[in-house]
Amino acid sequence: MEREIALLFTVLYIPQKSFIICIIIIIVVPLAVLSAPILHDSDPGSIYLKQSEGLRDAIRLSAIECQYQFRTERWNCSLEGRSSLLKIEFGNKLRFKETAFLFAISSAGLTHSLARACSSGRMERCTCDESPDLQNREAWQWGGCGDNLKYSIKFLKHFLGQRKASKDLRARVDMHNTNAGLKTTCKCHGVSGSCAVRTCWKQLSSFHETGHLLKLKYEAAVKVHSVTNDATGETELISPKRHSYTLKNHVPRTTDLVYIEDSPSFCRPSKYSPGTAGRTCSKETNCESMCCGQGYNTQSLLVTKACHCQVQWCCYVECQQCSQREEIYTCKH
């Protein structure tokens, strides 16, 4: 029987000197792939070992974007201390809305980084076009060299889709949320803005835009349970009936994020999060929610912040440091 193991990728991001943000992403890979002594370009398993740079960029990109999107939430995409939020609780037992977002943002990050790496020539086995006769050569299309979205999606589904045939509910949820993180952008062409010609452009949008869209999907995530289709024998995800006037069984759309368990409050330190005590909040917008009704402290401090920032490829931001006095609000212990 084929065995599987989990590869853990850890990324550290330090937005301020006062704390460290850490995220762990679990990817399940067949053990036989890693135990093979020699891998050739023609071997399907070789893709796991040849794309390390693209994977590293993708994981860092996903971690930073997750932390940015949840910066004002009780759970801020952090794993401080010895907490094993994804590895133990989210990864193996439960599937919360936060897990759904992590799967989607991770798949989107992989797609984004690998597509850009292909078009920039940083990966050997793909270029702007996946045609065999264009391998390792520049291939220019109308409007320039587009990102190789086709290759990156193919890689993603092969890399993260190992459990897609499983009837296990968690596996179905994982695969559903992975696919929800993929996006194809199309554009219309014609006189006066008419859509006489519609082409799908292989150029990825800003990853902040992707993160924002996935955050909106997170906020509208659908709780599901599994049922067996008597006709096909396959497991399907069904949203339970919410009101008497709605349909009894609602099948979530492929673009929805889905989850199984309701999320904990994340207010106090637990195996799920470090809690919100000491977290910085905004008095006008989120202190009441962030601090879980426990109140907050006010301090007037000279704060040094990053300013005049410029984004560098792929996932790095270079900034200057500026000082100013501000009122800082932190949740009480």
Automatic annotation (TrEMBL):
<dbReference type="InterPro" id="IPR005817">
    <property type="entry name" value="Wnt"/>
</dbReference>
<dbReference type="GO" id="GO:0030182">
    <property type="term" value="P:neuron differentiation"/>
</dbReference>
<keyword id="KW-0272">Extracellular matrix</keyword>
<keyword id="KW-1015">Disulfide bond</keyword>
<keyword id="KW-0732">Signal</keyword>
<dbReference type="InterPro" id="IPR043158">
    <property type="entry name" value="Wnt_C"/>
</dbReference>
<keyword id="KW-0879">Wnt signaling pathway</keyword>
<comment type="similarity">
    <text>Belongs to the Wnt family.</text>
</comment>
<dbReference type="InterPro" id="IPR018161">
    <property type="entry name" value="Wnt_CS"/>
</dbReference>
<keyword id="KW-0325">Glycoprotein</keyword>
<dbReference type="GO" id="GO:0005109">
    <property type="term" value="F:frizzled binding"/>
</dbReference>
<dbReference type="GO" id="GO:0005615">
    <property type="term" value="C:extracellular space"/>
</dbReference>
<dbReference type="Pfam" id="PF00110">
    <property type="entry name" value="wnt"/>
</dbReference>
<dbReference type="GO" id="GO:0005125">
    <property type="term" value="F:cytokine activity"/>
</dbReference>
<keyword id="KW-0449">Lipoprotein</keyword>
<keyword id="KW-0964">Secreted</keyword>
<dbReference type="GO" id="GO:0045165">
    <property type="term" value="P:cell fate commitment"/>
</dbReference>
<keyword id="KW-0217">Developmental protein</keyword>
<protein>
    <recommendedName>
        <fullName>Protein Wnt</fullName>
    </recommendedName>
</protein>
<dbReference type="GO" id="GO:0060070">
    <property type="term" value="P:canonical Wnt signaling pathway"/>
</dbReference>
<comment type="function">
    <text>Ligand for members of the frizzled family of seven transmembrane receptors.</text>
</comment>
